[in-house]
Design a protein that fits this description.
Strand order of the largest sheet: 3-2-1-4-5-6-7
Strand content: 5-15%
CATH topology of the largest domain: Rossmann fold
Bound molecules: NADP nicotinamide-adenine-dinucleotide phosphate
CATH architecture of the largest domain: 3-Layer(aba) Sandwich
Order of helices and strands: EHEEHEHEHEHHHE
Helix content: 40-55%
Amino acid sequence: MSALEFHGKRALVTGGTKGMGEAVVRLLAQRGATVIATARQLPASPLAGVCYLQADVATPEGAGTVVKTVERDFGVLDLLVNNVGGSSVPGGGALALTDADWEAAIQTNLMAAVRLDRAFLPRMVAQGSGAIVHITSIQRRLPLYESTVAYAAAKAALANYSKALANEFGPRGIRINAVAPGFIETTAASALIEQMALHRNVGDDEARGALMESLGGIPLGRPGSPEDVAEVVAFLLSSRAGFVQGAEYVVDGGTLPTV
Ligand SMILES: NC(=O)c1ccc[n+]([C@@H]2O[C@H](COP(=O)([O-])OP(=O)(O)OC[C@H]3O[C@@H](n4cnc5c(N)ncnc54)[C@H](OP(=O)(O)O)[C@@H]3O)[C@@H](O)[C@H]2O)c1
């Protein structure tokens, strides 16, 4: 592998200021790509050489701003990582979810990617190349029903859509794949662990163990790091994965059980 395997490539990473998105941005930039990262808030410590765009990509207006700015300032994209996603609904299970909760989950976890793909694909097709990665979740197959029913269902839709897109655009030179992370200890996850520890009056290690247990355990014995996921995303974007299409790579330390 060349140290600068993405030299000359223009990459857009949504949600590129924290967690896995930030790790992907850092890795692509280190390997030579020109990287544009989006987030609703600009980062306090921006990475040198990375261009940041402030926009809420879960809205049509925010996605429109990203598309206009990228096309005006960078022209065609070579690499697109649809990383934005998440859930902010309260616990209480399926019956506690309102239409607005469902709508928010679908806009953030599905439509943000759909709109950006729809905008950037025609130019990728015109240049005859491009690679897209969608960040799904193991929850699309292993939903945690207490608080993330809508999130898990939206991620399942994203995975299905990613496969359909791969079938449609593979013949036109575009590679499209997905990455399904398991429990990854991002800053948000660390905060959750601290909160659980406080709530249960236990140490962070015990709270982390309880979270791992709630997933049925992690055979590798630890949560993943953002860098674990970034490596796989970079591989899928690279020419090293030239014959990988319509796949969903699971990065979960073995969490998903065999059925
Ligand atoms: N962490 C896990 O264990 C885990 C497991 C499975 C799947 N995932 C998936 O992996 C992806 C990344 O998760 P993460 O844990 O790395 O997230 P994170 O640490 O919470 O970071 C999220 C990033 O996305 C940005 N963002 C969030 N909503 C946005 C919006 N509407 N428009 C633009 N930017 C937005 C955030 O910046 P702002 O807040 O400034 O907008 C931030 O840069 C998500 O799709 C998530 O569902 C995570």
